[in-house]
Amino acid sequence: xxxxxxxxxxxxxxxxxxxDLKKIRGYLGNTFREKTLLHNHNENGVVYSYPLIQxxxxxxxxxxxxxxxxxxxxxxxxxxxxVFELDYKSVKVIKKNIEVWEDEVKxxxxxxxxxxxxxxxALNQKNFKxxxxxxTLEEKKSFLDRIMVGNILSFLKxxxxxxxxxxxxxxxxxxxxxxxxxxQKVLGIRGEFASNISLPKYIxxxxxxxxxxxVITRNGK
Length: 221
Prior knowledge:
It is a single chain. Helices cover 23% and strands 40% of the residues. The protein is of the alpha+beta class. A five-stranded antiparallel β-sheet has the order 4-5-1-7-6. Strands 8, 9, 10, 11 and 12 form a five-stranded antiparallel β-sheet that branches. The protein has a two-stranded antiparallel ribbon with strand order 2-3. The radius of gyration is 18 Å and the shape is globular.
């Protein structure tokens, strides 16, 4: 299945930092309140689904990613985004670089190699405790592989794809360490993984994908 993607890369007069992403999301959500994909809230509160608009740094540059309906939302407002009002500072947009493309998502027989461009947070408090109780590296790797398959299935569900084929993952545990996430020490993963599913570049997997965690690229792209 083909899905639509877009990336809007912003050049600004003041450097945008990682801690500004949540503020930018809030600013755009308030400015364009009717565009619920910008903030994933509705009249009932938080919408717990895979975010179709994601705020992140790609190669150290602030970008907003749109997926499927998120592309339509971003394209409808991009001409109106000329400033970000963040607390006590006004960040002016100098230039926008827009890329729009289609990407195929399908399960195949061969494995593709992906790399995390930002830390991948796979575990919540409950399954982090379960992970720590595992004794061997093989057990831990198998546990994390299953978690990642679940993350991929959540992405597929969020973009309207029901997958009947088996998805396999082989996570390379070359850079696993405790990192801080939401003021807690949790397992953060960098490095690479292999999978038999084609995934679009720049999507996020794991926790807090809307704010730039777990960004992937495919090797060679």
